[in-house]
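Support request from a user on the community tier.

User writes: "When I paste my structure tokens into the form, the page sometimes reloads and wipes my input. The last time it worked, I copied everything first. Here is what I submitted, just in case something in the input itself triggers the reload:"
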């Protein structure tokens, strides 16, 4: 019996055709237990977001297998899978439609999924992300960056998914609000038993959020570490040591 909630096996993802075809994710293997949080970290362009997009169903063109609760995830997704797997993007300014009131931002996924008790669900999810129900009547330009990201998180969670994909969820935010949003995400995971797959180039963020971290280089997962191993520089690969030392010497105790 596979105790993984999400499992990627020999995941390969390429773009382009013929001679211009480039493989950007190479033989990636990882799994996440239910309720756990898994981070992908590495330099820009190493393939982190490409993995996330394949899991989200936004990039059906992959080889290898992805399974959810032991069942293969089909390359073409149906509605029930979009309900189970939701994504929060990096930039809440770009991901919220400027002319859509918060109420309608949150109503849309409920309508698409055909869920009942819509007003109650909207009030509940606003409260869960720390906003009172008057926010239903605001437009994105009337919100701060942190409030927008709270709405983006509410939009993802209003359909009660099991797996949340987080693509640099705080890197577009002021440092002062980053920690608030990360703490909110940690609390929501605990309270709702959510499973997270998260991408970040920020080691401090990943160490704060994840139970297990995969270091990527040129499309490959080089090694997987716990946050403690990360903090203490207990790594196997020279590349990881260099990456950690260059990225966050103040967070990691690397000699
Ligand atoms: N749709 C696409 N078509 C062609 N190439 C793509 C496509 N999407 C991504 N790539 C390429 O795949 C590689 C990996 O990109 P990806 O966005 O996954 O990297 P990343 O590690 O998430 O980087 P970043 O931290 O900058 O977001 C890059 O070289 C990128 O140019």
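"...and here is what came back when it finally went through:"
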């Amino acid at each position: 019996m596979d105790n993984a909630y999400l499992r990627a096996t020999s995941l390969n993802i390429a773009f382009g055709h013929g001679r211009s075809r480039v493989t950007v994710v190479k033989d990636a293997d990882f799994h996440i237990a239910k309720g756990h949080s898994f981070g992908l970290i590495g330099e820009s362009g190493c393939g982190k977001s490409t993995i996330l997009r394949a899991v989200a169903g936004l990039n059906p063109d992959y080889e290898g297998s992805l399974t959810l609760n032991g069942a293969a995830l089909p390359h073409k997704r149906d509605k029930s899978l979009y309900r189970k797997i939701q994504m929060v993007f990096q930039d809440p300014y770009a991901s919220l439609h400027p002319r859509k009131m918060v109420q309608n931002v949150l109503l849309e996924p409920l309508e698409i999924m055909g869920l009942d008790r819509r007003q109650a669900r909207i009030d509940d999810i606003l409260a869960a992300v720390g906003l009172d129900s008057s926010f239903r009547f605001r437009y994105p330009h009337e919100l701060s960056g942190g409030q927008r990201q709270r709405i983006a998180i509410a939009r993802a969670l209003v359909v009660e998914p099991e797996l949340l994909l987080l693509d640099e969820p705080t890197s577009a935010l002021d440092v002062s609000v980053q920690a608030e949003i990360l703490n909110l995400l940690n609390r929501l995971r605990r309270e709702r038993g959510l499973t997270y797959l998260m991408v970040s180039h920020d080691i401090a963020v990943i160490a704060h959020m994840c139970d297990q971290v995969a270091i990527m280089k040129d499309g490959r997962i080089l090694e997987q570490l716990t946050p403690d191993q990360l903090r203490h520089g207990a790594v196997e690969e020279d590349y990881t040591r260099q990456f950690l030392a260059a990225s966050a010497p103040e967070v990691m105790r690397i000699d």
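Agent notes: The reload is a front-end session timeout and is unrelated to the input. Residues 15, 24, 42, 44-50, 201 surround adenosine-5'-triphosphate (CB under 6 Å). Residues 4-247 form a domain with the Rossmann fold fold (CATH 3.40.50.300). Escalated to web team.
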